[in-house]
């Protein structure tokens, strides 16, 4: 046995001893629960004209859009065609499979192992009868396979075919004549040949689905900021209703450095998944890391000059609020505002609400287009914003609105004053200029892992303690 294969089977054995978690998520991972309905749909879709399947079975040429055609594995000179297995029966040398009805999929998840996959199909055989004339037969076939779920050497979830068999059902003679002895030979031959012909179909289906499962290990760009790389943190787990993936998001800067922010010490309590739904839980850690990367790139800093605001800040406004801050400046002179984030924003997810708090140094200065004036005063501020979240197929979109601005005086060029009198005045300016700038920067969103073809665009969204849960009906 090759070392790589030993690794795969060891992982499958370890995985078989695991059980789904009891609703607790460690603080870093993104937890995905894929309903068995979604897995069934992925398998069914892979059978509907999937290019990989067509490569196995040949070009689709039959009128009913079946999977077999001339020149395919089963058609033309294939195993059941002229010169194939049936060539040993002189009278039936022209018999070949012309049609394969699109299989119906049945799926049962097997906790601690994988799944039982069944394909029910009808095979159509055409040829010349022993007495000449068209001979048409139809046979019902059930393909039963046992499939293990594990993790590949690449670290992707993978489905591995462990056992496959076929059960031949009723055989119908649709046209032509076929004596009973020859009918028995056809039946016996199909029993021998069909497993070797149809079990590769299962392998092809699993190949398509494994490509979809492998997409979870994607590198998602964050615009000019960097990227998020998703990988499996643990072996896949399985219950009788869903597959569970603990996905580790790794945020990297443009230079490839890993951005690592402190983890919240308390695990997330994930709500139970309802039947016929799939679920992804996005942790607070991923929000905090993306916001931290934005802050490190200066996205939360701004200089507000008169041309940026509909109504410029002036000393006249300031005199009405804190006249002691003006010093010798005349009325009507334009002012500018300089805001610098002092550290990474604090993202809070709790009680069905998302909010962002940005600690900031705020300087109010006389506006001098070509100079470097000294600040009239400096404020220690906290900008608190309410966050609205909206899912799309690939990410969580974030839109911020100013909830409140809290400031206290840090230093003054003239004398001390009560800075709280400036909060509403400065808050209006931040609403007009600062918040729109933040929302442009936040267009990168919070990326979601790609799991099969599950589309979370129309999912229900719930904000819980330290996480966001997206749920979509299968």
Automatic annotation (TrEMBL):
Q: Where in the cell is it found?
A: Secreted
The Lipid-binding serum glycoprotein C-terminal domain, residue ranges: 274-472
Q: Which UniProt keywords apply?
A: Disulfide bond, Glycoprotein, Secreted, Signal
Report the InterPro entries cross-referenced here: Bactericidal_perm-incr_a/b_dom (IPR017943), BPI_fold-BPI/LBP (IPR051660), Lipid-bd_serum_glycop_C (IPR001124), Lipid-bd_serum_glycop_N (IPR017942)
Give the molecular function GO annotations: lipid binding
Question: Where is the signal peptide, in residue numbers?
Answer: 1-23
Q: Which GO terms describe its cellular component?
A: cytoplasm; extracellular region
Identify the main location: secreted
Q: Which domain of life is it from?
A: Eukaryota
- For whether the record's keyword set contains Signal, the answer is yes
Q: Where is the Lipid-binding serum glycoprotein N-terminal domain?
A: 33-275
Which family is annotated? Belongs to the BPI/LBP/Plunc superfamily. BPI/LBP family.
| Role played | May have the capacity to recognize and bind specific classes of odorants. May act as a carrier molecule, transporting odorants across the mucus layer to access receptor sites. May serve as a primary defense mechanism by recognizing and removing potentially harmful odorants or pathogenic microorganisms from the mucosa or clearing excess odorant from mucus to enable new odorant stimuli to be received.
Q: What is this protein called?
A: BPI fold-containing family B member 3
Q: Which organism is it from?
A: Microcebus murinus (Gray mouse lemur)
- According to the entry, what is the taxonomic lineage of the organism? Eukaryota, Metazoa, Chordata, Craniata, Vertebrata
